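--- STAGE predict ---
source: upstream dedup step, 1 unique chain passed
mode: sequence only
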Amino acid sequence: MRDLKIPSERHPEKAHRPDNAQPKKPDWIRVRAPGGEGYNDTRRIMREHNLVTVCEEAGCPNAGECWNQGHATMMIMGEICTRGCTFCNVATGRPDTLDVFEPGRVADAVQKLGLNHVVITSVDRDDLEDGGAEHFAQTIRAVRHRSPKTTIEILTPDFLKCDDSALETVVEARPDVFNHNLETVPGLYLTVRPGARYFHSLRLLQRVKELDPSIFTKSGIMVGLGEDRPQVLQVMDDMRAADVDFLTIGQYLQPTPKHHKVDRFVTPEEFAGYEKSAYGKGFLMVSATPLTRSSYHAGDDFARLRAARQAKISKG
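--- STAGE serialize ---
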């Protein structure tokens, strides 16, 4: 793994920056402050249904845009995570007991928002025997019941401490998209995602396809954490070996000074290069921009993903 304190020869401008200083945020990463009627309506519905969103908990830069369109990523099973990833702003600690009424409230909110596509994620729940798998399944079934035409995308934990039945429970509920993010290159796991295991996450994605090939699989990484291009390309190859359909790549942004520092801001041109490489490796869908996040434009991307699969089938 490259020492984060040594300036990259490919980026000599870093040689003059103190080790503890953050690079200046470029214009292409700036966004407008959230607000507007649509934003306020979405916020009100979330509050009325006592729901948590990853948009707020993780400080997503796209929250203003998405909420103005009525799109919010529901975060189930509470707002306290049992993991302590250094990139994430979600609180770490001992979670509360599961709320048995939460799946119904999520379904009500999806119906009230009139969503054609919903993304449902969660904190890690290593305190639960099944990692929260049954709660995920109940939420999927509740949304299906209330909004049968809504497509469902889930972004799950890794179920690292569970047996195989946990993943099987989620897959049997038949989400349209199963997303689990690798987050970064394997060489940075000890400092960025210390509670996880890279190859376990890859195997999780591969098993989804083995259990139900009709479910789209999706995964994403952040860049600007200290990785280099060959490492990113290797992650792409690993994902394709696991038959992942959809890849997202976005710029890492440091939530607070206590979190992992930004190594550098990756240029839009580099993101375009990653996108081209990913399509060349066989991904059906790729989103690679500085502001890309797992659920950003997820509904539109799902429509394109489904069309890409159909086109591939038609070609034989």
